[in-house]
Write a structure and sequence with these properties.
By secondary structure, this protein is of the alpha+beta class. The protein contains 14 helices and eight strands. Strands 5-6-4-7 form a four-stranded mixed β-sheet, sandwiched between helices. It has a two-stranded antiparallel ribbon with strand order 1-2. The two termini are 29 Å apart.
Amino acid sequence: MPLNDLPASYDVDDILPAMRGGLSHDGTLYAAPFYGESSMIMYRTDLMEKAGLEMPESPTWGFIKKAAAAMTDKENEVYGICLRGKAGWGENMAFITAMSNSFGARWFDMDWKPQLDTPEWKETLTFYLDLMNNYGPPGASSNGFNENLSLFQQGKCGMWIDATVAASFVTNPKESTVADKVGFALAPHKDGIDKNANWLWAWALAIPAGTDDAEAAKEFIRWATSKEYIELLASKEGWANVPPGARVSLYENPNYKDIPFAQMALKSILSADPLHPTVKPVPYVGVQFAAIPEFAGIATEVGQEFSAALAGQQSADKALAKAQALTAEAMEAAGY
């Protein structure tokens, strides 16, 4: 159901344009963001300093590899880099797809032909596997967001590239052993490519057509995604723990502007471009996904092949060949 009759006090224009655009059709809002996110680097400032390195605001993958090598101390269970390896379109493939954009890869060409057999995809997957096999934690093919969050909070990750929303968890002294030793930077890019490996996503509330009590549902959405809800939560949990990434006014609020990760998270959100996610033109909308019905199923299968490669069960070349074949078959069956 459309949300085009929310009261003026709700201030629809305060929703970040990137979020509002993704939740609208022909200018009509159909879902309201509870919170929004991109992805960025969270890193141990003490380990970076010990390595004699300084994290740039927008580092290259080459710098990330160098820093991961310098930070890794396997004898003490400290790993230079923690990345998603668990199979799933919203797990490892969210990360690897965003990463592939920063290497100039794309899922499909303008004729909807799969592109997983291209040099850009091979470079992406090969670099990812090399990084994780040399500097990542053991059993990484089973690690998703929650597992890597736990590792980082325990002080076992030098760097973690993941959702911006995680910043409040890793800097919370009640949950994180390294809360006062965390820095932030934009997701990396390949040297010479002007696309960073950050995604864009909104966790939103909508009302299915035919709902029995649409007005009650709409009133709940109005409240749960409002400025007043953010202020209520801030009064109980602190400004660092309010739902981020949805409203312009939050990032203009003096109580929030000084939160260590706030501005880097906003820069990450604003730099993601769902219409132009990679270097070459694409026929789909989406940064870490392609907004077509078939994508979740395809990417989950591809994610299983990439996870198997990370587990050492097959080579990068074999994983990519299988990924290309299954994607081509699925797209042909769907009539593309």
